[in-house]
Amino acid sequence: MKSESVSKIIGILKEHHAWLDESLPMIASENVTSILVREALISDFGHRYAEGKPFKRFYQGCRFIDELESFAIELAKKLFNAPHVDLRPVSGTVANLAAYYALAKHGDRMVALSVAHGGHISHAELSAAGVMGLRTYSFPFDEKKMNINVDEGIKLVKEIKPKLILFGASLFLFPHPVKEFREVADEVNAYIIYDAAHVLGLIAGKQFQDPLREGADVVTASHHKTFFGPQGGLIISKSEELGKKIEKAVFPGLVSNHHLHHLAGLAITLAEFLEFGEEYAKQTVANAKALAQALYDRGFNVLCPDLGFTESHQIAVDVRDLGGGAEVAETLERNNIIINKNLLPWDDIKNAKNPSGIRIGVQEITRLGMCESEMDYIAELFKKAVVDKKDVKDEVRELRKEFRKIKYTFVESDAYKYISLSEVLA
User: Fold this and answer.
1) How high is the mean pLDDT of the chain?
2) What is the C-alpha separation between 352 and 329, in angstroms, rounded?
3) Region 361-370: what's the mean pLDDT?
4) How open is the CA angle 125-131-134, to the nearest 5 degrees?
């Protein structure tokens, strides 16, 4: 018989799964893994330790772990057409820390997007960049294009001569101008880091930009957003020489054991992406564009209409006239539509509790098999809930009944069904 504590924990998990099964999960930084990945996550790898590199461990008992990690690295090299990949960072932020540690030193300068302009917190002095002692400077930003101002940015780089130039963002609608900065990076002896956390799946599916070919020295990422793997991080390097620097920064620098069950799940995800990634990425971008247009047609202030709204999985909407980002996000959540409030460039970061915007991601509902026609219907649900103040939970539930299975995988299965082994064994 289960203890009361175990019963309570399982009850919470079941409620979470049941709610997601009746909801539209549209957080731009999340996705759902396949049943094959989940099988890997509950394997014995989760109990083991493997400090160091494959076949050069500090522990015994790693021969199958070594075999799997080596195979996963080869899959990643093939997928990203890269000479060196390190799969050991345990998160995207740790991947960024390792890149900073490998390529710069305390007191060096770095240029990145500010948080208010969409930069990730790990790009800022109040987070990982500050932990590594970097002095950060913000790229000049073009609010109309929701992108870096190239001419002013190049002027800034020439003026301050940073050691690191960092591209990538959390609010990431359009490709960043990597190739435009390669020449000035060489001029000031700077490395280019590209944080691909949000768009890794789009890059893998050849639907965004190719940062390595455009001039990035190192690409960091998490692999659980548009790349539908388990949580964790990775680093891609343009050369073996840079890869060796990254390896030392990862271990012994920042990672001891690297969450081997997640590594096993990532290996399966890499295989899934090699097979289905291009089709998935195409549909993801098509869905984002379709939803943005449908929201715009219904009167929502979707950013960048003159540029086609987005080239990624994300949509940004200014909802100041609808009560602000927090109010709109909470209203949608009450209707089983899950998005997040988001700072927009004109917001004061001190007022982040109720910013101007919301950020919408379509990558998870794309994995459930939804296409452009569903995006139009979802836009109508947004309007009913936010503008017309109607309760649309029942309509959301009805829609989800048609989209239960995880697609773009070798074995389709229910996306959010919870199986309680403790109940089965009771």
Assistant:
1) 95
2) 13
3) 98
4) 55
Going by C-alpha positions, the residue among 383, 276, 372 that lies closest to residue 34 is 276
| Contacting residues for 218 by C-beta, under 8 A, at least 6 apart | 99, 102, 103, 191, 192, 193, 194, 235, 236, 237, 238, 242, 246
**41 Cβ contact list (under 8 Å, min separation 6):** 33, 230, 261, 262, 264, 265
- Across the chain, how many H-helices and E-strands are there? 16, 17
| pLDDT value, residue 6 | 84
Predicted model pTM: 0.95
Calculate mean pLDDT across residues 207-212: 98
Q: Which residue has the tokens 């509902």?
A: 365
Lowest mean pLDDT among 11-15, 31-35, 190-194, 348-352: 348-352
Assess contact for 194 and 178: CB atoms under 8 A: yes
- Which structure tokens are listed for 325? 């980002």
Fold classification of 38-273 (topology level)? Aspartate Aminotransferase; domain 2 (3.40.640)
φ, ψ of residue 172 to 5 degrees: the values are -135, 85
The predicted structure's pLDDT at residue 424: 52
- Return the closest-CA partner of residue 337 out of 397, 402, 407, 416: 397
* Residue 425 Cα distances to 7, 14, 44, 422, angstroms: 13, 16, 20, 5
Q: Reply yes or no on whether the pLDDT at 244 is more than 60.
A: yes
Distances in whole angstroms, Cα of residue 77 to Cα of each of 47, 236, 280, 325, 403: 27, 8, 20, 40, 33
Instruction: Please provide residue 256's backbone torsions phi and psi, each rounded to the nearest 5 degrees.
Output: -95, -100
Count other Cβ atoms within 10 Å, centred on residue 317. 25
User: Residue type at 204?
Assistant: A
pLDDT tens digits for 263-295?
999 999 999 999 999 999 999 999 999 999 999
Copy the structure tokens of residue 194. 């590209």
Cβ–Cβ contacts within 10 Å for residue 13, how many?
A: 12
- Cβ neighbourhood burial of 124 (10 Å; 0-12, 13-18, 19+): buried
Question: What ranges do the domains of the chain cover?
Answer: 38-273
> Picking from 28-42, 225-239, 328-342, 350-364, which range would have the lowest pLDDT averaged per residue?
350-364
